[in-house]
Write a structure and sequence with these properties.
heterotetramer; A: about 350 residues; Rossmann fold; five-stranded parallel beta sheet; 12 helices; B: about 325 residues; alpha/beta; 2 domains; seven-stranded mixed beta sheet; 13 helices; about 40% helix; binds thiamine diphosphate
Chain lengths: ~350, ~325, ~350, ~325
């Protein structure tokens, strides 16, 4: 597999102010350190289930989400941790979900690695790949009908683009010029299956050609390129010019989940991508532009680490759900209570 | 009172709810200016425009799945599946997305939507325009499944479904669309979900049915009455949740139960109902609970003789009920 | 909606010999006259169910199928009557299906308008739009594995291309260079829904761009263009160069089915397409080139009409299925007979 | 004899059939060199190459639907669905294409294929990696549905399925993959489809189960035996067709029946079996047929306490069986 081929297409920093660029670093390093911490917790057996690390892909997730307002929506897949926390999901809420606590956003119901948080308009996804793209498209339809100025950011892996649901959703969004940006994180692998076995196309943004809207392939490890490309797409969407498909070329450093040794890929491939570590690349940019010194960054890291430890402490103090909570939240009503004491009489007017 | 067909009752329910609530909208294939292949959405596009009555591409997964997203954002979508035979193409968003959104988010997100599915045989539709398929949904926690048989129930239940806060599968038997008409009130009314209705009181045995079969059972009950067999006919109306209490009360009274449905026997709704009756009213039963259903073949072969063979009908119901009464 | 925009891209007659061109006329006029006859029969109440006329679309169906050999496969949708009979399905077999007779290819089981005929490798499709494209793709996979030199022709309407199944199938065929040609009959309408509500794209052959293989949009009412474009695609497929998507611009003259008055379309639109009647166009070509005189054509028409009447007579003489045949052909075995007299003993070695 | 896990039995069945018959091939997500997410196809890619062990894109509809086409052309596809939770995405080709191809063509086309679906809970998989969903398929005429619980049955049934001429849903409970091992013959053997197996003879009551629950029932039977309750344990193995005769013979002998399954109660396989037992052995029943199943919630909530609450287990089975024995 080739490296990320696309060049940065926009002037770095053109639209991200100095302050934004500092904030972006905070989100980027927070995503990285939180993710690495979660991996360690999982390896230590501190939570059950599994863990999907997104280390290596933080720039794409953070850069895409940084442009969003509180009433914008994210329809997530499963490997965009940075997007959720950049959008505002509290670390403790994430940690509670990993720990499957009663006060987790999903009350311990779902799956450790599919995060949602209605408070920040983060859809709680199923594990079903690509379903979030269809549901997200419906969310964009609702925004349009409600005449809101907001947009939906729907994430998907390159593997997920193979499902028919992707086609139905993007085709519909194209017809109606819906305010939605499809962000495809092409990390070259879907579990053990390489991108060239997902499709004969080499640019997944070419998928957009089947729907009549714009598609871009960008360097997903370049934080500012992602930020700016997505922000431009958001502006177009808000202006009623319809959807965009943005393919971010990136790479996951670890296995599909923490139990996957990922030995289907070559050490060389991994190394070449580690050389393009999105955090290191951005730190170099900050150094080169003098926007943020190493000392400043270290202060942020200390602060972020403290945040993380606090989230862990909070989550560990949270109660486990009671076994019987398994019965809650199936319906808006309690099915038993809905049953009548007696059936109603036949309506006036007879039957046929 | 006004006299309407089953179809008109459904159209009216949608129109009235769309007037009442801006959040209600309709999407599906041919539902726009064309008014739907069976004309269930006739007039809606004229009155509410293309923004609220959306012609979709041939995309069942989108029709349902986008409805889920819109519902999550506070809308009240009505997604139409043209034929239940193609609901298979939108199966994932129904059973994995709509049904589970509330549960998987611990109540954080909800999915107030209605999925109208046109179904049923006896119309010469052959293998792919005749299926009922209520058992695809009946076993899915999180879904409400409704199957009305009269204009009154259709209108009242559809309104309850639209106003409710859960994903509802609303099954419309296409044979009933124009074949059944009735007087219904002019004024707004609803019918509660989850409640059966005794469409004919009786004492000899209980016959449980829904949709088209309910009508066949009522016809059969008239014939049976002539030979002194007084059937109580329970219209289930809601399949999930279904009204155990009304069914059990009736069976405890009559001591005998027959369930009639159009779908094939094995794995049909009837098995569940028979099992529950037996579990909960065993000591009251004078005979084993009986089922009369379509045979275990793919519903429904096209040639008229085979379709007739497939469908439970009045004659078959009478025969089965007689045997049960004599048990 | 615009008229067929594409020009004939290939030299007419370049590869269709004089004899072929005569044969093509036979198939074309046979499709037309058979179809019109079926419509009349339906209107007379001579068979139950419904009827989907393909009048107006014959050139696309006939031209595509004329290039096929007996071991090539057709995965049909529902409006390519001309393809089935050109491939060799006997008129009487079709008529028996319409009449739902016991000796119909489907033994009266399926639906009047979804024709299959295993004897000529014509898949018996479901009514489920686009399923034939997925199943057809699997048939092409089998041909590849069996190292056969054959191809699959999968038909689909422009409406059917919206389903996710289309995406999954074409994506897979692209990856594996399967020997399949997807022929999309774009007749501008899917029941009441216009093509511009199916997708934002205006050329449905652009869908191929998402899968990395060639797509062409051609004049589907020009018999020789269709024939030649499909033949070239077949040659590529046989040579291992993979699939092609061919969009044939055409028009159905009548309603979606015989009970659809089709008043969603304008009289002008219909008129403009009737002026491009594929039969009249081809007759003009035969006149201009002198390949076949009107007298010769009339002889063929007489012969074709006799064939059709014979088919009707044969089909009407066929027996109706017995009611109990409804129980046949569910499994390879009789479920009742499969039940054992007694369960087998627990296997040696115990259970766990 | 050799000692193998449930998983190894499945891999062996595929490998041996692929050696035996060139027409057999495997397709699915990650089934290639990776050997499948649970390693069920381990070694197959090495031995048979990428032409016969095909890594597909994430495309459940294609995985099944292309299998249907290949089967129609004379191949013997084995399509793998990674988790039954996602079988919803390939639902149309399963129930409308595979199941109906033979019928709709009057026997002209056939569909000899196996759809292997990994399913089941008690592995901490949460809402989307724990579902069983056998009731999605159980009610579909045209499908064979198999649900083995031992390595011997898994291997023998999978071979029968591959050699058979019908579309088969082959359900593999993922908890059994490595947890269950047994000695099986070295030589080729098959287990007939459609036949149950009495895994433990007994006299007091009949307990019917399959997959993981069969093992829980056997554990329960050992405990029950200590207090003189002698349960006969019937392993259904085949769900469609299911072995009425063996079940009815057992119930006629014991007079009491309990059905245990992991899927939720309502609309589950147990309802059908209970209904048939009651219909056909009513006069032999000393108590109503009982069911012990997962509750009517979306399977299976993630937090360990909730998963435990959800799953029928040995303790619950013992309690239910005691009550039934005492009826
Ligand atoms: C419909 C469906 N099929 C299969 C799976 C199992 N699965 C989980 S993640 C995954 C790979 C996803 O690949 P990609 O979309 O590229 O995302 P990545 O993991 O690389 O971030 C698969 C096959 C699933 N969750 N949903
Ligand atoms: C999955 C599915 N959804 C809906 C239908 C109902 N239906 C039958 S034909 C048709 C329109 C097909 O349009 P197109 O593919 O353009 O073919 P055309 O009829 O124009 O030849 C529809 C929606 C169906 N058969 N299958
Ligand atoms: Mg990936
Ligand atoms: Mg069309």
């Amino acid at each position: 597999m080739a490296e990320a081929k696309a060049k940065r297409q926009t002037d770095p920093g053109m639209s991200a102010s100095k302050e934004d660029q500092k904030a972006l670093y905070y989100h980027l390093i927070r995503a990285r350190r939180f993710d690495e911490r979660c991996r360690r917790l999982f390896k230590q057996g501190r939570f059950p289930g599994t863990y999907f690390s997104a280390v290596g892909q933080e720039a794409a997730a953070v850069g895409a989400a940084f442009g969003l307002g509180p009433d914008d929506v994210i329809a997530p897949s499963h490997r965009e941790l940075g997007a959720y926390i950049t959008k505002g999901m509290p670390l403790a809420a994430l940690m509670r979900q990993l720990f499957a606590r009663a006060d987790s956003p999903d009350k311990g119901k779902s799956h450790p690695c599919h995060f949602g948080y209605p408070e920040i308009n983060l859809l709680t996804p199923a594990s079903t790949m690509t379903a979030q793209v269809v549901v997200g498209t419906g969310m964009a339809l609702a925004l349009r009908m409600q005449k809101k100025p907001n947009v939906v950011l729907a994430f998907i892996g390159e593997g997920g683009t193979s499902r028919g649901a992707f086609h139905e959703a993007l085709n519909f969004a194209g017809i109606h010029d819906l305010p939605i940006i499809y962000v495809c994180l092409n990390n070259l692998w879907a579990e053990s299956v390489p991108a060239y076995r997902q499709s004969r196309i080499t640019k997944f943004s070419d998928r957009a050609k089947a729907y009549g809207f714009a598609g871009f392939t960008i360097d997903g490890n370049d934080l500012l390129t992602v930020y700016q490309t997505v922000r431009e797409a958001i502006e177009r969407a808000r202006a009623g010019s319809g959807p965009t498909l943005i393919e971010c070329l990136t790479y996951r450093w670890y296995g599909h989940s923490e139990i996957d040794p990922a030995n289907y890929r070559s050490a060389d491939e991994l190394e070449s991508w580690k050389k393009r570590d999105p955090v290191a690349l951005y730190e170099r940019h900050l150094d080169e532009t003098g926007i943020m010194s190493q000392a400043e960054r270290e202060k942020i890291i200390t602060q972020v680490d403290a945040e993380i430890e606090e989230a862990i402490t909070l989550a560990e103090a949270s109660p486990h759900p009671e076994a019987k909570e398994a019965l809650d939240d199936v319906y808006s009503f309690s099915p038993a209570a809905n049953f009548p004491a007696r059936a109603q009489p036949t309506p006036p007017g007879g039957l046929t | 009172m006004k006299n309407v067909t089953f179809l008109e009752a459904i159209t009216e329910a949608m129109a009235e709810e769309m007037r009442r609530d801006q959040r209600v909208f309709v999407m599906g294939e041919d539902v726009g200016a064309y008014g739907g292949v069976f004309k269930a959405t006739k007039g809606l596009h004229d009155e509410f425009g293309g923004e609220r009555v959306i012609d979709t591409p041939i995309s069942e997964e989108l029709i349902v799945g986008a409805g889920v997203g819109a519902a999550a954002m506070g809308m009240r979508p009505i997604s139409e599946i043209q034929f239940s035979d193609f609901a298979s193409c939108g199966f994932d968003p129904i059973v994995e997305q709509a049904a589970r959104l509330r549960y998987r988010s611990g109540g954080g997100w909800t999915c107030p939507m209605v999925i109208r599915i046109c179904c049923g045989g006896e119309i010469g539709g052959g293998l792919y325009h005749s299926q009922t398929n209520e058992n695809w949904f009946f076993g899915t926690p999180g879904l409400v499944v409704l199957a009305p048989s009269t204009p009154y129930d259709a209108k009242g239940l559809l309104k309850s479904a639209i106003r409710g806060d859960d994903p509802v599968i609303f099954l419309e038997h296409k044979k009933l669309y124009r074949w059944v008409r009735a007087d219904i009130p002019e004024d707004d009314f609803t019918v509660p979900m989850g409640r059966a209705d005794i469409k004919r009181p009786g004492t000899t045995l209980t016959i449980i049915a829904y949709q088209l079969m309910l009508h066949r059972v009522l016809e059969a009950a008239d014939i049976l009455a002539k030979s002194g067999i007084d059937a109580e006919v329970v219209d289930l109306r809601s399949l999930r949740p279904w009204d155990k209490e009304t069914v059990l009360d009736s069976v405890r009274k009559t001591g005998k139960a027959l369930i009639v449905h159009e779908s094939p026997l094995t794995g049909g709704v009837g098995g569940e109902i028979a099992a529950v009756i037996t579990e909960e009213a065993f000591e009251y039963l004078d005979a084993p609970v009986q089922r009369l259903t379509g045979p275990d073949v793919p519903p429904i072969p096209f040639a008229p003789a085979m379709e007739e063979f497939y469908m439970p009908d009045t004659r078959k119901i009478v025969a089965k009920a007689r045997t049960l009464a004599a048990y």
